[in-house]
């Protein structure tokens, strides 16, 4: 038996997240690092799940590089996304917020 669900992909041994390779429905059990865990919400392909518990303030690591900081405690197997991670590269959590901040800062569209 595999230690981690085959629908999850570890990109680097230093990562604390796993990438979802196929959609996983809410309530489906998943295996992460040998533990069977329930998935509370459906997660789409390309999203991330916590490989281990990640504490608030701790770096989130994908591809062996820090991609953000946990803004809340993230239990092992939980969905890792904008609701619990703060970007280290933009001051916002979403593309829409980043675009709005850019437009305000650069007065885009003003005539």
What does this structure look like?
By secondary structure, the chain is mainly β. It has a single domain (8-106), classed as Archaeosine Trna-guanine Transglycosylase, Chain: A, domain 4, CATH 2.30.130. 11% of the residues lie in helices and 29% in strands. It is built from one helix and nine strands. It has one helix at 95-106; strands at 8-9, 17-20, 29-32, 35-38, 48-50, 59-62, 65-70, 79-80, 85-87. Strands 1-2-5-8 form a four-stranded antiparallel β-sheet, with no helix packed on it. Strand 1 and strand 2 (17-20) form a beta hairpin. It is elongated and about 55 Å long. The model has no long low-confidence stretch (mean pLDDT 89).
Write the layout of secondary structure elements.
Layout: E1 8-9, E2 17-20, E3 29-32, E4 35-38, E5 48-50, E6 59-62, E7 65-70, E8 79-80, E9 85-87, H1 95-106
Antiparallel strand pairs: 1-2, 2-5, 3-4, 5-8, 6-7, 7-9
Short description:
This protein has one helix spanning 95-106; strands spanning 8-9, 17-20, 29-32, 35-38, 48-50, 59-62, 65-70, 79-80, 85-87.
Provide the descriptors you would attach to this structure in a database record.
three-stranded antiparallel β-sheet, Archaeosine Trna-guanine Transglycosylase, Chain: A, domain 4, four-stranded antiparallel β-sheet, single chain, elongated, 9 strands
| Structural class computed from helices and strand pairing | mainly beta
User: How far is the N terminus from the C terminus?
Assistant: 64 Å
Report mean pLDDT, rounded to a whole number. Answer: 89
Reported CATH architecture: Roll
- Roughly what percent helix? 10-25%
Question: Might you state the CATH topology name?
Answer: Archaeosine Trna-guanine Transglycosylase, Chain: A, domain 4
- Approximate strand percentage: 25-35%
The number of E-state strands comes to: 9
Tally of individual domains: 1
So how many helices? 1
Q: Main sheet, how many strands, which sense, barrel?
A: 4 strands, antiparallel
Q: Record the strand order, biggest sheet.
A: 1-2-5-8
CATH class: Mainly Beta
Strand/helix succession: EEEEEEEEEH
């Amino acid at each position: 038996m595999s230690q981690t669900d085959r629908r999850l992909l570890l990109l680097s041994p230093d990562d604390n997240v796993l990438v979802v390779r196929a959609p996983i429905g809410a309530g489906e059990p998943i295996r992460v690092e040998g533990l069977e865990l329930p998935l509370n919400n459906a997660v789409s392909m390309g999203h991330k799940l916590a490989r281990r518990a990640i504490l608030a303030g701790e770096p989130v690591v994908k591809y062996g590089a820090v991609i953000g900081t946990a803004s809340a405690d993230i239990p092992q197997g939980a969905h890792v996304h904008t609701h619990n991670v703060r970007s280290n590269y933009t001051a916002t959590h979403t593309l829409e917020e980043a675009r709005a901040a850019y437009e305000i800062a650069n007065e885009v569209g003003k005539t």
